[in-house]
Amino acid sequence: MEALFQHIDQLSRGVKAEGKQLIRRYREFPLAYTVIVYLFFSMAFSYYPMVDHWLTGFIMMSLPLAIPCGLAACIYLFFKQKQMIATAGLIWVLFSFLVMKRLVGSNGSELAMSQAQTLNVLSFNSETFPTSAQNGFNASSLKADIACFQEYSPNAQIENQYDDHVKKLSCFDQGREIGLALFSKYPIVNQYGRIWSRTLAPDINGFICADIAYGADTIRVVNVHLWSMGVRTNEAISALKAGNFSQFASGLVDTFTKLKEGFANRNEQFKEVETYVAGSRYPVIICGDFNETPMGYSYGKLSQNFRNAFEEAGQGLGFTLNRHPYCARIDQQFVSSDWHIKACQTLSDISFSDHFPVLAQYVLKKSLTVPAEVLAHRKSISHLVAKN
């Protein structure tokens, strides 16, 4: 027994010695080591968001800044002959590009799908529709097989283009309703949705989950609008340009508060949405306004089981925000492995809203092995069923 205690005491002393040595090494280059550790956590959280605390939202969002800082720290440590830590940091920098590829579309893969049935899906935070074509509004430009709108206000021109629809609206102000809408040229056989209530803010966020008869199959489409933050960076920028530093500082504090609030609430909202897609027996499409960049919690969680349409078949950066700070893609479309993603694009020529629409084309993988005439027959049957 005495020998055992002596062995434990030796181990304890060894651990303490190693700890002191690590602290001593850290004190040599504290800034460089801190930057590399921060890079590791920002990359890890973005790749696998195991923590849904609001603080991780800020850490994940800062990954594009953490990468060049981490690379600079690695170069500095190589110069200081700290090859082991510098090499480990460089490996983390390289791994982080696996996450950063979310920001750029890869144009997809070329497949011979001319005979396959293509499903066009539109997602659009439409804000307020113009009152006439003179203001740049053409309803036919927003026509697709399935269209999901956020911040939707009833519009006859849009609704007349579709055979079936689901709407979840709330009172925005006197005489005006706003919310979510899902339109489909195919029959909606089942649906569920809700608008989340907010204190001292409009009730415009929520989701719609619809099961749609698509030929001989049933697909599940989810239209989601996660917590809106109302961040307006242009106000802070204007104050800075005018030399009003107190107003600029106030704007930064307000932005931080809204971001923090948004991270916390979106995480909770996404968990509810996730229950309708996790383990679904139907092919799934999830689209909408996520109100966060690809370095966000919901994007990271969905990426574990679903594929992002723009990431796989988009072009360029695909920014969807039509206001300050502009350089953000916060409107997304995700699909399950049942789909082939044929194309995805941001329709930047439709600019009456503070968002741009996202249009994607999908092919159900099983249809690639089914003759075109069989698909046409199934389609005619589904139309007959819908009419009856």
UniProtKB/TrEMBL annotation:
The family database entries (CDD domains) matched by this protein are listed as: EEP-2 (cd09084)
This protein's source sits in the domain of life called Bacteria
Locate the transmembrane regions by residue number. 30-48, 54-78, 85-104
Domain Endonuclease/exonuclease/phosphatase, by residue range, is: 142-355
SUPFAM superfamilies from the entry? DNase I-like (SSF56219)
Q: Which UniProt keywords apply?
A: Endonuclease, Exonuclease, Hydrolase, Membrane, Nuclease, Transmembrane, Transmembrane helix
InterPro entries of this UniProt entry? Endo/exonu/phosph_ase_sf, Endo/exonuclease/phosphatase
What GO annotations for molecular function exist for this entry? endonuclease activity; exonuclease activity
Q: Could you identify this protein by its name?
A: Endonuclease/exonuclease/phosphatase family protein
